[in-house]
Structure formats: structure tokens, C-alpha cells
Design brief:
mainly beta, Hypothetical Protein Pfu-838710-001, nine-stranded antiparallel β-sheet, 9 strands, about 40% strand
């Protein structure tokens, strides 16, 4: 189960306490249902996501680099490239700050995953977060992959 809130970031503040940084490349074999392939640094993953906005089922399976490269030739839409910074947040939560590259730049989104729907509903974002786009499918990566 994935429970997350998503926000537009109008300006990235200086001196964030970045815990780690990952380079992500992902494409979609299907957007309904969502079937995604992802390279996350040197990890390769096949993901299925159910429909939904803040709460969705999510299943991840490992791929080899060779399988990923083969499936990458079959994606529908654009290949998304982004840099993800992981930043500690209050209550043992983490902000995943995604800085999109290529024709999706200068889009910057922040996602925060939660242990429960109640925790997600109680969340007060940091003051540097912009518009809450959790309930807009326009900012799902699967939707962004189709906007060419």
C-alpha cells in the first residue's frame, strides 16, 4: 500500500538536509493499469500500481539491467528522467524531492509517504511547499509520461 501526498515546489530552498540523492529513469508499459519500469541508480524495478490518488496498491518486482533495457524499448510515451533528493521531515517522515529533467524541466515535485491515511490527512507541509496536487492525476508520473 502506498499512501502519499504530493506538492508542487515553486522554489527549492538553500541548505536542505539531504540524506541521499538518486538518479531515476522510468517509463510506462501501461498507464491503465499503471505498469512502470524504473532504474533507480543501479537498481531495476517493475512496478504495478492500482488506480487511486492518495492511497494506492503498489507491487514491486526486481528486474535485471538486461530486462530493464529490453522493456525500455517498449514503453508508451516519454522516458522520465529525474533526480530525487531524500530529505528528513518531522515525525520520522521523509520528503522525496523530484527535480525533473529534459522537456519536463523545470518541474519540481515533493512527495511524502505516510504509514496511514490518518497521518497523511493530519500532515502540515513545510512552508516552502507549494500547491498540494495530491488529488490531481495531472501530476502522476504516468500522466506526465504521456504529455509529449
Amino acid at each position: 500500500m502506498e499512501i502519499e501526498r504530493k506538492y508542487l515546489i515553486p522554489r527549492i530552498p538553500e541548505r536542505l538536509a539531504i540524506r541521499n540523492t538518486r538518479v531515476i529513469e522510468q517509463g510506462y508499459l501501461s498507464t491503465n493499469p499503471v505498469v512502470r519500469i524504473r532504474r533507480d541508480n543501479d537498481d531495476y524495478i517493475l512496478t504495478y500500481k492500482s488506480s487511486g490518488l492518495m492511497v494506492r496498491e503498489e507491487y514491486n518486482l526486481p528486474l535485471t539491467r538486461e530486462s530493464y533495457e529490453h522493456l525500455k524499448t517498449k514503453i508508451d510515451g516519454r522516458l522520465i528522467r529525474k533526480t530525487r533528493h531524500v530529505i528528513p521531515c518531522k515525525e520520522d517522515l521523509f520528503i522525496e524531492l523530484d527535480i525533473f529533467e529534459g522537456d519536463l524541466a523545470p518541474l519540481v515535485l515533493a512527495e511524502v509517504e505516510f504509514p496511514s491515511e490518518e497521518a497523511a490527512n493530519r500532515f502540515t507541509p513545510p512552508d516552502w511547499f507549494g500547491e498540494d496536487v495530491t488529488f490531481s492525476s495531472e501530476y502522476h508520473n504516468s500522466t506526465l509520461s504521456q504529455k509529449i
